[in-house]
UniProtKB/TrEMBL annotation:
<keyword id="KW-1133">Transmembrane helix</keyword>
<feature type="transmembrane region" description="Helical">
    <location>
        <begin position="56"/>
        <end position="76"/>
    </location>
</feature>
<protein>
    <submittedName>
        <fullName>Uncharacterized protein</fullName>
    </submittedName>
</protein>
<keyword id="KW-0472">Membrane</keyword>
<keyword id="KW-0812">Transmembrane</keyword>
<feature type="transmembrane region" description="Helical">
    <location>
        <begin position="194"/>
        <end position="211"/>
    </location>
</feature>
<feature type="transmembrane region" description="Helical">
    <location>
        <begin position="97"/>
        <end position="118"/>
    </location>
</feature>
<feature type="transmembrane region" description="Helical">
    <location>
        <begin position="18"/>
        <end position="36"/>
    </location>
</feature>
<feature type="transmembrane region" description="Helical">
    <location>
        <begin position="124"/>
        <end position="145"/>
    </location>
</feature>
<feature type="transmembrane region" description="Helical">
    <location>
        <begin position="165"/>
        <end position="188"/>
    </location>
</feature>
Amino acid sequence: MTEPELQGSDKNRKLKKTLFAITMGGITGFFGAMLVKEALDSGKFASVGASVEIASLVGMIYLITGLFVGLGSLAPNAGAKVLNVEDADELREQRAMLLYSSVGMFAAGLALILVALAEAGGPVTPGLALLVYGVLAVVAIFTSVKSWKQQDELMRAVGRETASLSYYLMLLVGGTWALLAHLAYLPAAQPLDWLTMFWSLFLLATFIVVGRRGMLNMR
């Protein structure tokens, strides 16, 4: 096979993989969003507003991401068809790091959802939410540290850049909102809105950093 043919074949492979990953992500995201909507519309939660809905959806993104990464690392042959890796061997080499990361992502998403749904007299009471949140926070911190120890210098650099950028995004978005609210141009953000901003802007920072490094290009 000639060089142009090899390049064309590789391009087609990447395109098929990209389309498959987008399709799987879209389907999973759709059913995840429907699950959130069904739960919020069930009548079990009295005070469901925009803040609760948005926080729950952001938490669901964390859950889905953690689930995909975790299952992909446990089943590398299948995971290599969805996750942005060179092949199944790469997933096997990074299994420990990815498993820790996936558990941390899942714990963070579940924590945000539980806090969002907490209300006095509801299925998730404030006391229960606080207790479970504390446990999940410990799990997320522990797994993050363990994952960091498994990372190479590139991944650690990505992590540092993401943390730095997420801080500045939070300062920009949250700070601007607080300023406009103080000047009575906007309603003040609810406490849950601030938590959602922390979670969502960290995700946005991650995409920006990895995209800037060319790591979003399908391999």
